[in-house]
Amino acid sequence: MFIDFNFMATRFLFDPPRRPKPKIGTGLKSLLVRCPSTSKLTDTGRTIKEKLWPTAKVKAQKFTCAHCGGVHTWTKEDVVLGRPLQ
What angle do CA 64, 24, 10 make, to 5 degrees? Predict the structure, then answer.
């Protein structure tokens, strides 16, 4: 009996299940906010369906900026809708 040990499994039975990737074309958008220090867009880590955005109510939120390291506050008026990260 010959056993081939060159075969490597890519997933094991004890691996946690993977998150399903967002389907492209569902209208899912990332909420991006411009950093006041560097003027670069930063992802807030939130997503929303594009058709729900006009009626969405958003309270003032805070996030730590990836560009300058500062904590910024943003509102709905500050948001730019962009493609979700994959």
Answer: 85
Amino acid at position 33, single letter: V
Is residue 58 within 8 A of residue 46, CB to CB? The reply is no
Q: What is the pLDDT of residues 26-71, one digit of tens each?
A: 678 888 999 988 989 988 888 888 889 899 998 988 888 888 889 9
Strands (E), the chain: 28-34, 41-49, 61-64, 71-74, 79-82
Q: Give CA separation, 4 vs 8, 9, 13, in Å.
A: 10, 12, 20
Two structure tokens written together for 39: 């003027």
Buried b / exposed e along 38-49 (16+ C-beta atoms within 10 A)? eeeebebeeebe
What is the structure's pLDDT at 50? 87
Q: Is 50 left (phi over 0), alpha (psi -120 to 50) or beta?
A: alpha
